[in-house]
Write a structure and sequence with these properties.
Elements (H helix, E strand, L loop, with lengths): L6 H12 L12 E5 L12 E6 L5 E4 L6 E15 L8 H18 L6 E5 L11 E7 L11 E2 L2 H5 L9 E5 L5 E9 L12 E13 L6 E7 L4 E8 L5 E7 L8 E2 L5 E9 L9 E14 L4 E9 L9 E15 L4
Parallel strand pairs: 1-2
Antiparallel strand pairs: 2-4, 3-4, 4-18, 5-16, 6-7, 6-9, 8-16, 9-15, 10-13, 10-16, 11-12, 11-15, 14-15, 17-18
The protein binds calcium ion (CA).
């Protein structure tokens, strides 16, 4: 059974993963999202800071007569801060307005899935240090650490950013060998609270298709680092875009490979279902790929009140808004 994740960790991840504040010059504002507390030093390097914590009483409410099923109601406080400074692309007050709207948007849009995080390749390139993509041609599946993998270049990465029918393709024409793509998803983990044990569902989706002399088809598999094997194969037989999905709900830690720094990786391998015959190539096309993780615990969030609490008696001005956010989770606890 997965462990219940600290709800503050879940809320911080939700805000962090979805935060998109765009400056007036179209650049993306740098927003630091963390647990409490506010750190004025941090604002020298960031355009804004957002914190979340449980600073009000929370409660456990029985749902059934015997109290076995209960609802835990969590009263969060979320704060955002911006200071006026010369490096801001717009006034501090304007950045704060955008940040306030962004927090309102995220909580409302994700109200029934605050515990779900989508990892995809949007904006990534060989120079980024999150998820990675590699290609190879081989007689069978290669392990994630195989020396035969070549990382995609920047142009190729960009083709994975969106589901937009702009596809990366790997063509391979060695007899009896397959075209392969490896995706390494790097999970967002809080430094002191790795959530490997909190994950209760992993859904991997590959959008694309494969062709070969023996017919169309794509096969995807996920890496089990305990058995050192590719498992849970799913496949499609289309010669045009289709989405192939692997859904995992048990033994999940076997598929989250933690490195020595406590960072978790999930590896997905996609390949043509048929090899090349040496004359006609096996070609694998990928339009978009994603990994969706769900954690145990917080399942709903909604807004209470919010207000601005600026500090204009100090220089530089500190633009500050605070939000009351209610979250809840359901728990089934047997009597002992
Ligand atoms: Ca694409």
């Amino acid at each position: 059974m997965p462990e219940v994740e600290d709800p503050v960790v879940t809320l911080v991840r939700l805000l962090k993963a979805n935060m998109r504040v765009v400056n007036d010059d179209q650049s993306v504002a740098s927003i630091f999202v963390s647990r409490e507390w506010y750190d004025r030093e941090l604002l020298k390097n960031y355009d804004g800071q957002v914190t979340a914590g449980l600073r009000q009483p929370s409660q456990v409410k029985p749902i059934t007569l015997d109290h076995s099923l209960s609802q835990r109601i969590l009263n969060f406080k979320v704060d955002c801060w911006v200071v006026n400074k010369s490096t801001l692309k717009q006034s501090g007050n304007r950045t704060r307005s955008k940040l306030r709207e962004e927090i309102l948007r995220i909580i409302r849009e994700k109200r029934t899935k605050p515990n779900e995080t989508t990892y995809d390749f949007v904006g990534l390139s060989p120079t980024t240090t999150t998820h990675k993509a590699y290609e190879a041609g081989a007689p069978g599946s290669l392990v994630p650490t195989d020396a035969g993998w070549t990382e995609l270049n920047a142009t190729e990465y960009a083709k994975l950013w969106y589901s937009d029918d702009d596809r990366y393709s790997k063509s391979h024409s060695v007899n009896n060998e397959y075209a392969l793509i490896l995706f390494a998803f790097k999970l967002e983990l809080p430094k002191y609270d790795p959530h490997e044990n909190n994950v209760n569902k992993i859904v991997l989706s590959f959008e694309g298709y494969g062709t070969g002399p023996g017919g169309n088809g794509t096969t995807i598999v996920v890496w089990n680092h305990v058995t050192s094997a590719w498992e849970n194969a799913a496949s499609g037989t289309s010669g045009a875009d289709e989405t192939i999905t692997i859904t995992l709900t048990s033994n999940l830690t076997n598929y989250i490979d933690m490195d020595s720094d406590g960072v978790g990786y999930i590896y997905l391998l996609a390949g043509t279902s048929n090899p090349s015959d040496g004359a006609t190539a096996a070609v694998l096309y990928c339009d978009y790929v994603k990994c969706v993780l769900t954690v145990e615990g917080l399942t709903h969030v909604k807004f209470g009140s919010y207000r601005d609490v600026d500090e204009t008696s100090v220089k530089p001005f500190l633009w500050h808004s605070e939000f009351m956010v209610t979250g809840w989770m359901f728990e089934n606890v047997p009597e002992t």
